[in-house]
Each structure stands twice: as structure tokens, then as C-alpha cells.
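Reviewer 2 asked us to include a model.

Predict the structure of this chain.
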Amino acid sequence: VSKNNLKKLLKVFESEDVEATVIGKFTNDKILRLFYYDKKVCELGMDFLHEGIPLYKKKAVVLKPKLKEPRIKPGKDLTPTLKKVLSDYNVASKEWVIRQYDHEVQGGSVLKPLVGVNNDGPSDASVVRPILSSNKGLIVSCGINPRYGEISAYWMAATCIDEALRQIICVGGSIKRTAILDNFCWGNPDNPDRLGSLVSSAYACYDFSKYFGVPFISGKDSLNNEYRVDGKSISIPGTLLISAISVMDDVTKVISMDFKKPGNLIYIVGETKNELGGSIYYKTKNSLGVDVPRVDKNKAKNILEKLSSATDRSLVRSMHDCSEGGMAVALSEMCFAGGLGADIFLAEAPYKTKNEKRNDYVLFSESNSRFVVEVERKNKEKFESILKGLPFGMIGCVSNTDILTVFGLDAKFCVKADINQLKESWQAPLNW
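Predicted model (C-alpha cells):
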């Protein structure tokens, strides 16, 4: 802090009853001096302080797990499978936990953790207005998926960044005003395989923060999470949490994820691939798979920026990202959060694969950079013109019923479910 601004800064701290004290000043002689009252107790050259201790040399090995894609027989009616996916602990409602905490502190909450007609649908992110006299807001979101790390720590980290940024976009934000933070939870880095996966994930953090143009402003790590049971060492799965924070100029443009009005159009934005490695769908089949979702540097950033442009022009009524459980879960959550049904046609979704095309793969794939978007019919042409050149499809419309109906790639229904039953499946596991 310059001397010219010191008094102003101290007044800010004083107004908040925070003690602040000047403890030193910068010099140009590259020497650190510490004093206890008038007595000098330390004098160190900065070169020694930063370079005096030799760097550690550790061995890191990136292991390729011996995995393969499972052979799963596709079912014609995927409704029971959808309910099972919704009831997985990683997807299920966390309302019981959320309600233990106060998310109304100081009255600045704009978009809360739970939204929709009954305030029990899962919000993509939270938005708060720190200064009540201003319409500026802060968006906070996160991305995490340790199951992907069992296949590839690199793509796990890339996915976490993509997910955190998707959720910023979903509520009406922009990645141009976004910063991110990391939280690494890992095993013992003295073990080459643990360090290998840690380094791999760190490389992804570097690559994709640069790609998206979002800086890391802070972070933390919690390493050496290993335990011995019956003489056997057990390590936690390498886990990365990415948090994102963004500035929103006008909180009146905030978007929630619940469907708003019967007759509105439903789009899927982004390309679906047969990327089910580490997915909840495979988990329900007691499988892991190998084709983990990746982030396409040719499209991901452009998709996020174009959708941000659409929300800034008030062309979007609701939006929800496709993450755990894929498109099927996103659609289900938007339906029961809004108390409305939907008619969906999978054949209209952008779907790219060299392998077999299947309804279950389209519904439950967890490919990155994808969104389900609700748009009013009057805004159809404007919305589509913004997305020109990107993968998107108008896959259906919101209905004034309690039924989610999904017609498969062959135009025959593959899901027909009462949204109240879907909601029950989603709420039951943690409804303590």
C-alpha cells in the first residue's frame, strides 16, 4: 500500500472493527530485516531466503489404469434407470444438509442454493449482493468429480474447471469476469503414483485456466491423506475441488434452472459423445469404464461466451448444465423444480460418435460444455443466430403436464415418467 493511500485503507478497516497495523516497508537492497522493538533479531539476504535450500527431487509416475468399456445391454424403457441415477448420492438432493446453514445472512442473497416453485430445486450457483444499495452481485460456483480421477487425473481437473465455469454461465454470468481457486486433496506425494496423478492434474489446471482465460487467485492443498488398516495402506482418491467467483453487473438478470412456462422451447447446447467413463450411469451398472469426458478446446470457450451473450440479452428463461447423470438428470431437475413436464426428442441433439448410437448413451453421457436451455418461442431466431456455427439442437418444449416424455433416436419413447416420482427418487436418499 502506498503512503498516499494508507489513511484511507486504515479507515476502511476501522469502519468494520478490524485491527490493522503497519508492520514494515519495502526496501530496494534485497535484505529482510526483522526487529523486536529496537533490537535487530534477523537479517537475511533474499537470494538465500528463496534459493538457499535445494529443491526436492521426487519421482512421479503417471499410471494408465487397465480399464475397458463395459458391455451393457440397452433397455427400451430407461425410466427405472433414470430413477436409479437420480437416487445416487452424488446426484440426490442435498437439501437436508443445505437447510442446516443460514444462506440469508445480511439479506443479500439473490439466487439461493435451492430454487424453483417450491424452493427445493438444485441451483447451479449462488448469487449474493454484498452492497444492498447496488445491483452488482457476486456469483460463486464449484466443480468436483473424483470418480473421473480413477481414469485420468488430467481430465478430472479439466472437467472440474469446465463445470465450475458452466455454472457461472447458467445463472447469467460471464467468464470474462471470473477467477478460480483450487483445493487439492491427495494421498502421500512420496509415492510416485500419487505424485504422478497430482502433477497431471496440476498440468490440466495450468492448461485450462490459460485456455479459458480465468486466473487462479488462491488455493490450498491437503496431502498425505493415507491410513493404515490391518497393515495395509489406504489412500483417499485424488480429489480436486475448483471454486469459481465472478462479478455480475446487474443481478436483476439472474437466471434460475427451473422451467418457467409451458410451450417454451428446450435446447441442448454442446455436443454429446459416448463419454461415460466414470459416469453415474456406469456406476449404477457397477462399472467404471475408460472413455472419460474431455474438454474440447475447439468449442468449449466459444460455447460459454455465446451463451453468456444470450443471457445478457435476456433471451434465456432457464439454463442448467449437464454434469453428473448427464442430460437426463438436467432435464429431470428442471422439470420437477419448475413443476412442469417436457417432451424431448433425442434425435435432435448433436451427437457425435464413431461407435454405436444408443438412447442410454445420449441421455446419460457426461460430456463437458453442455447446457439445457429454455427459450421463449418469440426469441427462437435471435437465440439461434447467436449460436450459429456451434453444436446445438432444439430438442423439445416445456409442457403443462406432470410428465417427462423422451422419444429416442428411433422416435419411440424411452422415458415416460411422472416428475413427482422423479423428484421423490431424487429426494429420498438424503431425506433424513
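The chain has a mean pLDDT of 97. The radius of gyration is 24 Å. We have added this to the supplementary material.
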